[in-house]
Specification:
270 residues; alpha/beta; sialyltransferase cstii, chain A; 7-stranded parallel beta sheet; 11 strands; globular
């Protein structure tokens, strides 16, 4: 049981959340206007803090074996610590990484959850419905992506508006080079050995989450406010108009371009 999540059940009922992913377009995204918004970020997001001095995430998620990698584990560990050291951020981190990240109990504002499942996709990147848990106290599912944790947590917390930022997709093959093309910082370093499968898997994670949210007994709005994106599951909108002027401006051309990137519909499309 992840009892750490109990007090967060429907805590943000009726509110909106920005989920901050780690795609390349995030390097060109001004996150400072989100300083008073509820945001969920993950992984090596602290690498972008210097560019956005006014902003820190409300919640931070981590569940990656990258901290144990022989070549880049130390840089990942440092990035995690640089996120959870800020008092305005509440961290949720898989307990299996505690001895690596915080063996001396230095970081107070962190919950270490233990019941995390991981249902692997098939060779095409298709995922099972068990990949989305509607009760994260019982279990939370990674399914190869920390953003899946963020989507499940958003569901559990009761948000009725979810906005994706930095969810680019369109990954290319990279085995952890020092010139990472798939994330917002060239020094990021992560292994994407099968980009076609990884892209399909990530898209299907969003497809399943969208389905689960829409099965709730109250409505939800989803927007993809990523500056450059191949993620076509949600309506694509103009980020700056939305965060600065509260205007929802649909980007139909970008939506069409994103849809044309894929060879098949996303897995849980109606």
């Amino acid at each position: 049981m992840n009892t750490e999540f109990l007090k967060y059940k429907d805590i943000h009922n009726g509110k909106r959340v920005f989920i901050i992913a780690n795609g390349p377009s995030l390097a060109d995204t001004d996150l400072n206007p989100l300083k008073n918004e509820i945001t969920i970020a993950m992984n090596k997001i602290s690498l972008i803090y210097d560019k956005n001095p006014d902003w820190k995430p409300t919640y931070y998620l981590f569940s990656s074996t990258n901290v144990n990698h022989p070549d880049w584990g130390d840089s990942w560990t440092k990035a995690v610590r640089d996120s959870i050291k800020h008092k305005e951020t509440t961290g949720f981190i898989a307990k299996q990484f505690k001895n690596r990240i915080d063996p001396k109990n230095k970081y107070e504002n962190v919950y270490w959850f233990k019941d995390m499942s991981e249902h692997k996709p098939d060779q095409q990147g298709n995922i099972k419905q068990q990949c989305f848990s509607t009760n994260v106290v019982e279990r939370i599912d990674k399914s190869g992506s920390t953003i899946n944790l963020a989507l499940q947590l958003s569901y559990f917390m009761g948000f009725n508006e979810v906005v994706l930022v930095g969810a680019d997709l369109g990954w290319t093959k990279d085995l952890g080079s020092k010139s990472d093309p798939n994330h917002f910082d060239k020094s990021y370093r992560a292994n994407i050995s099968n980009p076609e499968k990884a892209n399909n898997q990530m898209r299907n994670v969003h497809s399943l989450a969208y389905k689960k949210f829409n099965e709730r007994d109250y409505p939800v709005k989803f927007y993809n406010a990523t500056l450059r994106t191949k993620l076509d599951v949600y309506p694509i909108i103009d980020y700056n108009e939305y965060v600065n002027n509260s205007n929802v401006v649909y980007l139909n051309e970008k939506q069409k371009e994103a849809e044309d990137f894929w060879l098949t519909p996303h897995q849980y499309k109606d």
